[in-house]
């Protein structure tokens, strides 16, 4: 009986081990190529990271997976990487086909006169602010207290994974996310142009950038790894470099309104503009196409947009669209310990510093900013016709994003 039990146990263990080997080595995501060559301010010794000794307090399955992935890392360390190619200076500027990019254009100036920021101290301060308010029990907002395991799978769709370089990026729409997605495509080599991976981020067409099939995101793990998906997520969250970029919440709303309602966008017109015009501007028999509506002078006003955000019926119908959903709901900053917090207000400096830390600055440069970027100085004009009570309600709706990421409360907009 004892031998039979041992035999059955051995068969089970061997089966589990083979399944894990298949997951690690044969999955087309490339988990086996677990390249870790990033160094951040976390107090971890390189030896502990390489040996997998930094994964303390992991459950048994997590620990087993961690050791297995560590062993695969050691085995792959001898595989020569592709020769890094220096970025060709002064590469051809792309022909911009997207309406928004065509309207705004790119700012190709060198910004040599900008003051260099003490990036290391800046990151320490941003992370300290975030951690303090996440730990502050007197500061509350929805979903703050839940654990990572409590986050539904569909809410993890903004976490893009690059297994080749050990990077996780949480994208926030209207915060340079198009160009950061382009960077992630170049790094992960997830998209080919005539059989060759893209090398210049700006060569990647916008329609491919926002195609969900282009990126490996956390919400896709379930289909690939089944019940092991959360364990693998936790391991990658511990081992990979995690970053996001944020923006003044009110300015982000203005930017979202400009790109989705001031430009002709068929999808947003049908999904959002028609209901807004009916509910808040008392329009009926609206045109079915955005071009007809614009031709007739029927456009959503900024006031309509703010009413829509404040209307309790909005979230009862469906969660906020990602372009105006709060960052804390997109990226879960109190559940995920981000290594780098960038800001659009210091985009050029932050992007250059991050690429250096990731040790990929010889491979690519971050694309230039838009010339006509929505600025903080626009707030007073945009909110001038919005009633004070609405502004105060709107601040409460986005307060967590202001506080967690160190944006000052816009007192001038919240008082008479």
TrEMBL record:
<keyword id="KW-0472">Membrane</keyword>
<dbReference type="InterPro" id="IPR005331">
    <property type="entry name" value="Sulfotransferase"/>
</dbReference>
<dbReference type="Pfam" id="PF03567">
    <property type="entry name" value="Sulfotransfer_2"/>
</dbReference>
<keyword id="KW-0808">Transferase</keyword>
<dbReference type="InterPro" id="IPR018011">
    <property type="entry name" value="Carb_sulfotrans_8-10"/>
</dbReference>
<keyword id="KW-0812">Transmembrane</keyword>
<keyword id="KW-1133">Transmembrane helix</keyword>
<keyword id="KW-0735">Signal-anchor</keyword>
<keyword id="KW-0333">Golgi apparatus</keyword>
<dbReference type="GO" id="GO:0030166">
    <property type="term" value="P:proteoglycan biosynthetic process"/>
</dbReference>
<dbReference type="GO" id="GO:0016051">
    <property type="term" value="P:carbohydrate biosynthetic process"/>
</dbReference>
<keyword id="KW-0119">Carbohydrate metabolism</keyword>
<feature type="transmembrane region" description="Helical">
    <location>
        <begin position="7"/>
        <end position="26"/>
    </location>
</feature>
<protein>
    <recommendedName>
        <fullName>Carbohydrate sulfotransferase</fullName>
        <ecNumber>2.8.2.-</ecNumber>
    </recommendedName>
</protein>
<dbReference type="GO" id="GO:0008146">
    <property type="term" value="F:sulfotransferase activity"/>
</dbReference>
<keyword id="KW-0325">Glycoprotein</keyword>
<comment type="similarity">
    <text>Belongs to the sulfotransferase 2 family.</text>
</comment>
<dbReference type="GO" id="GO:0000139">
    <property type="term" value="C:Golgi membrane"/>
</dbReference>
């Amino acid at each position: 009986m004892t031998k039979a039990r041992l035999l059955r146990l051995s068969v089970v263990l061997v089966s589990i081990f083979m399944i894990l080997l298949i997951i690690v080595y044969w999955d087309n995501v490339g988990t086996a190529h677990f390249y870790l060559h990033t160094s951040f301010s976390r107090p971890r010794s390189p030896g502990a990271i390489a040996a997998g000794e930094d994964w303390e307090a992991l459950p048994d399955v997590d620990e087993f997976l961690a050791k297995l992935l560590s062993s695969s890392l050691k085995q792959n360390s001898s595989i020569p990487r592709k020769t890094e190619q220096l970025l060709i200076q002064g590469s051809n500027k792309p022909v911009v086909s997207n309406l928004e990019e065509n309207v705004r254009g790119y700012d190709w100036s060198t910004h040599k006169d900008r003051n260099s920021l003490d990036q290391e101290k800046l990151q320490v301060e941003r992370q300290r602010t975030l951690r303090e308010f996440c730990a502050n029990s007197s500061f509350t907002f929805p979903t703050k207290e839940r654990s990572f395991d409590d986050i539904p799978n569909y809410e993890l769709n903004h976490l893009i994974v690059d297994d080749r370089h050990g990077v996780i990026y949480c994208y926030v729409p209207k915060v340079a996310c198009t160009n950061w997605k382009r960077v992630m495509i170049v790094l992960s080599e997830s998209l080919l142009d005539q059989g060759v991976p893209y090398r210049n981020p700006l060569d990647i067409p916008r329609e491919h950038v926002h195609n969900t099939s282009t990126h490996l995101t956390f919400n896709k793990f379930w289909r690939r790894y089944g019940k092991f998906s959360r364990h693998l997520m936790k391991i990658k969250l511990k081992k990979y470099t995690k970053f996001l970029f944020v923006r003044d919440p009110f300015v982000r709303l203005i930017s979202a309104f400009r790109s989705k309602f001031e430009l002709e966008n068929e999808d947003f017109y049908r999904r959002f503009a028609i209901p807004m015009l009916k509910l808040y501007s008392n329009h009926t028999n609206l045109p079915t196409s955005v071009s007809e509506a614009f031709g007739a002078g029927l456009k959503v006003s900024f006031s309509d947009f703010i009413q829509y955000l404040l209307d309790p019926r909005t979230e009862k119908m469906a969660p906020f669209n990602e372009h105006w959903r709060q960052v804390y709901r997109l990226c879960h900053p109190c559940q995920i310990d981000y290594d780098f917090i960038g800001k659009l207000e210091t985009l050029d400096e932050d992007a250059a510093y991050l690429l250096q830390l990731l040790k990929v600055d010889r491979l690519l440069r971050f694309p230039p900013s838009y010339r006509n970027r929505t600025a903080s100085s626009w707030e007073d004009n945009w909110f001038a016709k919005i009633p004070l009570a609405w502004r105060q309600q709107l601040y409460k709706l986005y307060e967590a994003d202001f506080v967690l990421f160190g944006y000052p409360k816009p007192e001038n907009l919240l008082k008479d």
